[in-house]
Request: fold
Amino acid sequence: MLLFDPVDGVRVAGAVLPGHVEVRVGGGTGLVDRDGVPAEQGRDVGQDDRPVVVVELVAVVAEHRDPADAAGFEQLAEAADIGQVLPQQDPLLIGDRPFEVVVVGLQERRRVIRVPGEGVRRHQRVIVVHTVHRTGLLRHRIRGDAGPVGAGGYSGAYTVARDRRQPRMQEELKGMTDAQYVTTGGDDPRKVELVGLTFDDVLLLPAASDVVPSNVVTKTQLTRNITLNVPIISAAMDTVTEGRMAVAMARQGGMGIMHRNLSIADQAEQVEIVKRSEAGMVSDPVTCTPDMTIAEVDALCARYRISGLPVVDAEGMLVGICTNRDMRFEEDFSAKVADVMTPMPLIVAEEGVSADAALRLLSQHKVEKLPIVNGAGKLTGLITVKDFAKREKFPNAAKDGSGRLLCGASIGTGEDSLRRAGTLVDAGVDALVVDTAHAHNTGVLDMVARVKKEFGDKIDVIGGNLATRGAAEAMIEAGADAIKVGIGPGSICTTRVVAGVGAPQITAILEAAVPARKAGVPIIADGGMQYSGDIAKALAAGASSVMLGSLLAGTTEAPGEITVVNGKQYKMYRGMGSLGAMKGRGLHGEQRSYSKDRYFQADVTSEEKLVPEGIEGRIPFRGDAGAIVYQMVGGLRAAMGYTGSHTIAELNDAHFVQITGAGLRESHPHDITMTVEAPNYYQR
Reply:
């Protein structure tokens, strides 16, 4: 028979939960009070201030441990800070075979229930406990009131309500060999760690909701110290993110991560483009001198996408301004700035001017640029009318404390990585990503620790990529301010096929989220997302933000030219582990190679010896990145409405249902020929 022997209460994380006990095995249920007398199913929850405790046994976990295994089990339990959640005086019996329940994982979430007979709603705490073994799988659902838990507890007995399947199950278990108890084969129940799930394997379950999608809050933590207004960042790939994409992402409330398949100087220049694109006040404006030529000024304006420059002398004193209006009708581009500029006196403001006062000066004098000077007349900043216009056009933009757009950049683990990091910090980067294919590596963890120690007072450090709980724990210990999760899920990545290594993305996020949540370290889900619903699933699994590659690679702002094939427009998209990226074959034919160390092949001197872990291809042109982000966030808002989540943090507590192949087919449009495409859906 299947039973629990008497125990003293139910102990969860050191606290004893007294009250009624309901035990469900398979589909059966039974409700008893603390005296062992069957209770009515409609009985009030938490009557006499005693919470209801529900223990749901879905399957068997493992054989009763040998005494020699006890230390290992207890070590796992200690690591989870839980201990023995269901203490037993005697082992759990299945037929003639003894089993012991040792629990090492804990999730806690809150739900709202309706109390029978009272017509009121009561908040409940739901504690989901996972066992040591994840194949086999014993799962308990312990539910209790959210109010204070009594310290006393009581002595009672677990009674088991049997369903019609139990006798057959017990007969099947009798006489089985040890190997037969491991459903995946072999005699080691831990050889196959998990059942891996990805986005197409699950759906979010709808829940009771008072949430209107337009009113949800999509603000989230990218890192410990950086907040985004939408939980989306663009991938550090040379066909996805350079300055133009990073600007577009920050204006939408997200952030771009600058790829590192560039020289140090070029990567820093891309960061500067973002930081100079708009600000409350540009504290270090680009300037020119009177002896420069118009051609040189025009090149600077094109480089930084600006329309004019203040003119300063050798001591930094403001002597004039040179704008596109001054240069527009000049035919001789070798002419000096001194000959065409608008000289002093100019409309200027002194240091400390307020935004409202600056706007009044711009409006009153009908000028577009307002130089800021100190008492001696030295240029110290610049305010432009475009910054005010951009503030109104992009109210959700993600900005730093100085009003500049947020920007991140990736570095590697090579010899020049610290020098690259220092240059990027000087350029104004907000976060550095130590970006590798396998972050659970000593060299990567050491680099995270070194960057954090050297620059941690100025920027946040993100470590990745990883896919396991142990890797997340190691990265947190190294000092990372955020963790990037994903090994092989990207559409252009072949790591899982070439190396046979990886973890489906939902499972990877769920695993990494366990230590990350305890440490308060945000998770970035990187790769594998094809639709906006996948973003919602990633966040519900435990991520705080997502990194997109293919969904943004076909946009106007992505690096590379638009090509036309059979009348359709495309843009190039490739993995950073592709031959083109690792050989240094640039988008415009130039030679450069800074991404080999991401795949631990920096020491490969012959390009013929490279082992690629990615492919090159083309992706349909999709228009502006802003429109794509809008649709992605719109889908996320819809998901939050369906699940009753006001915030991203509440979405983290949503529940999944695992689906079959038939369920996936049913989820997509079917039995119809699509004639008009939707902006947020395409057929695969």
In short: The longest strand covers residues 103-115.
